[in-house]
Amino acid sequence: MINKLKKNRRLLVLIVFAICLSMGFMKPVFAQENSLTVRLQAHLSVLADAKQSPPREVYRFKLETLNEKKEAIAEDVVETAVENEGYVSFKNLIFDTTGTYFYRISQINDHQEQVIYDPAIYYLTVDVYYDLNHTFAASVIAYKDGSVEKTEDIHFSNSYQLTGSKQNIDKTKTQYTTQMQSCWFLCIAAFILLVILVIAYRRKEDG
Fold first, then answer.
1. Residue 1: its pLDDT value, please?
2. Same domain, yes or no, for 103 and 81?
């Protein structure tokens, strides 16, 4: 009789466990064992004037983690070397809990000479949830600051002013040449004036 009760009790426990599992009550336990990785990339293009290729430069970008008030609570800075076009990859975002997460991507203006930086800012919303198979899934939505339309391309476009530097160099050379010509003119005028004074002084003594 006792053995029979023990068997029935084990059977009852198994049945209750199976019911809880089918109703999804054990989902939080599985959440601790699962994780989801999201990879983010930004596209960078550098345009130069005068139909010349810009030199290879290093550009830096910032991925900020935001709270619900869109305030930065953490950041990750990465850099990439680009000549004409390239991509920058941020650190992997790893989620082990469902929820909504907010991020912001921008370019850091390092004030490199001749570079005009794209001031664009992108806001991202990552929704992590369970799909029908009780596995982690995520949807990523990106908006460019000032726009209400979704975008699938986080794109920054910089400009590199090659002709501007040449014009500045030519302008500097012209200014230097003008200054030198002015100095020579003043020196010659001073010498002529000195000669005139000497001649006048001698004539006065002879007279």
1. 52
2. yes
